[in-house]
Sequence to fold (122 residues):
Amino acid sequence: MIEHHYNFPSALRLKKPAEYKKVFAKPIKSSDTYFTLLAIKNDFDHPRLGLAIAKKNIRKAVHRNVIKRAVRENFRIQQQSLGNMDIVVLARREAVDAPLELLRMSLEKHWLRLVSRCASCS
Fold:
């Protein structure tokens, strides 16, 4: 039986500006009303997540933190099916007023879309 780990250690995060720049340079995009996700293939055997939740779009720190928590939690649960990708999540203004369940469903659609699009990229 395969054992799945659903944690979110430091190795699953984008931390350095150079890592973010790499994703922003030539990404595969997925957008909807609440989020824009940018992704590229990485050289590791696991996905990595970066968050770019702008103050310009989401004014209050409380709202930014709620959105970040929701994205991290969803990524943590879905990481087994994502493969080797670096993903940056950008939130839009509309994400502030949306219920968490709607944000979760939106993110799950994005993960599926990125996996299918990244399968064809090198």
